[in-house]
Write a structure and sequence with these properties.
One of its GO terms (biological process) is phosphorelay signal transduction system. With 479 residues, the protein is α+β, with helices and mostly antiparallel strands. It is built from 13 helices and ten strands. It has two domains: 193 residues; 190 residues, Histidine kinase-like ATPase, C-terminal domain (Heat Shock Protein 90).
Length: 479
């Protein structure tokens, strides 16, 4: 039964008035009949009491009719509301399960809100139709905003990828290789469309250029200081050579040799600093240097040289242009071997000549190196440092790496059969020559100082280490 059918045609007040009029008519007739039927003596009483009772009954009937009509009207209204709520809930469920997902799918596929509304089922309720219309336009606006955000994010990602993979590496190469200024690099590089990406690129390039200028200035200062130090040490060694030839007293000669040895160690340190700063050694050798003299020259540049034992040196020689670098590299490795092994143990050096070149093996009896320490040491000698990753206080392996890169040496670490660490150095065949006859001991040429040996004295030994060996049997079993 619908609400229209259940709801009475007249309002409750009208129905009450009709009932009251009908009751008054009926009761009035009965009241008049009663007045004619009763004796005249009681007729006034009957008239008053009957009229009052009739009016009261009529009012009661009207009130009952009013409440009954109101109750029927309320029940009909409630029934209509319940039916409307059920219908609205059914239409909302149909909208949520059918029309709305279909509408969203069409809009996400690129359809306009009106086209999506035309393709989706339309609910019967006007309110739901308005709701669906508003949702269609809101979803379309949201999709447009999301598409714009995705396009912006994709564009920013492409720009950042271009900066990271192409622009920034090219800028780094130009700043470091060509020493180009930051403004020139930024002017010639592709400019990102996004202001934030452009600012990021500009800040990175300027910071890189500032760092490179600072590093270059620092390295220049270090190289200049190292060159002056090398010049002073070279001059000191030349003067010590002359003093050794001039004084025959054994005590004075021993003191001069000690000073010579200390100066040679200082020279190794200065050469290391110069190499790390981009320079080189101040000493040059005029011709091939026998392998034994190379090893003894390396011994003369370390502190604890008496602990080193040489086991055969062969008759090979190192080309003069590479002798100083090989000597320095071996000195750094021997210094590490003596520094990281117990004081009472010996460090053994073996020399073998193979088809690939001369192999020098240094073995100590220390605690050895853990695998990760050995890997770190191998990286240090295989990847020479640049201006941005100079080593810390202990830079011996970094110097070995630089020299190995310049000369083509191959340096590798392995566990030693003596319990410590073994270092294998391969001097390539192109740096190796052979001495047909034992030559006179040579003296390295010094730049800028070069003091010749006196004509009436024997020629100077290759380095302070050779002179130490000649007088103190360094590197051999003591007498």
């Amino acid at each position: 039964m619908s609400a229209r059918e259940a709801e009475p045609g007249r309002p409750p007040l009208e129905r009450a008035l009709i009932v009251w009029v009908a009751a008054v008519a009926v009761l009035g007739g009965a009241w008049l009949w009663a007045l004619t039927a009763v004796p005249p003596a009681v007729r006034p009483l009957t008239a008053w009491s009957g009229g009052a009772a009739g009016l009261a009954v009529a009012l009661v009937l009207a009130a009952v009719a009013h409440h009954a009509a109101a109750a029927r009207r309320s029940r009909a209204h409630l029934t209509g509301l319940a039916d409307g709520a059920a219908r609205l809930e059914r239409q909302a469920a149909e909208l949520a399960d059918g029309a709305l997902p279909l509408l969203v799918r069409h809009i996400r596929e690129g359809a306009s809100p009106d086209a999506a509304l035309a393709a989706a089922p339309r609910p019967d309720s006007a309110a739901l139709r308005r709701l669906l219309h508003a949702l269609a336009h809101e979803v379309a606006a949201t999709e447009r905003s999301a598409a714009a955000a995705r396009a912006c994010a994709a564009s920013l990602h492409d720009e950042l990828r271009l900066i990271a993979e192409e622009t920034l590496p090219a800028a780094i190469e130009r700043v470091r290789g060509e020493h180009a200024t930051a403004d020139r690099v930024l002017r010639e590089a592709p400019r990102p469309a996004d202001p934030l990406a452009a600012r990021l690129l500009a800040d990175a390039v300027r910071a890189l250029a500032d760092g490179e200028r600072t590093a270059a200035a620092t390295l220049t200062a270090c190289a200049s200081a190292a060159a002056r130090l090398q010049e002073m040490i070279t001059g000191m060694l030349a003067e010590l050579h002359e003093l050794q030839f001039r004084h025959d007293e054994q005590e004075v000669f021993d003191d001069l040799l000690d000073l010579d040895h200390r100066a040679s160690r200082m020279g190794r340190l200065a050469d290391g600093v110069a190499l790390l700063a981009g320079g080189g050694s101040a000493r040059r050798w005029p011709g091939p240097v026998p392998m034994e003299d190379v090893l003894r020259g390396a011994l003369g540049r370390i502190t604890d040289f008496p602990r080193v034992r040489l086991h055969g040196t062969g008759d090979a020689a190192v080309a003069g242009h590479a002798a100083e670098g090989v000597m320095h590299a071996l000195a750094e490795l021997l210094d590490n071997a003596t520094a990281f092994s117990p004081p009472g143990t010996a460090v053994h050096v073996y020399v073998e000549e193979e088809d690939a070149g001369v192999i020098v093996t240094v073995e100590d009896g220390g605690l050895g190196m853990r695998p990760h320490e050995r890997e770190r040491a191998q990286r240090a000698v295989s990847e020479p440092p640049g201006p941005g990753n100079l080593p810390g206080p202990r830079h011996g392996l970094a110097v070995v790496g630089l020299l190995a890169c310049r000369l083509g040496l191959r340096v590798s670490f392995r566990p030693s059969a003596r319990g410590g660490t073994g270092v294998v150095v391969l001097i390539p065949r192109r740096l190796v020559t052979r001495q047909e006859a034992p030559p006179p001991l040579l003296r390295p040429s010094a730049e800028p100082l070069s003091v010749p040996a006196p004509a009436d004295e024997p020629a100077a030994l290759p380095d302070s280490a050779v002179r130490f060996v000649a007088f103190h049997q360094a590197g051999r079993d003591p007498e």
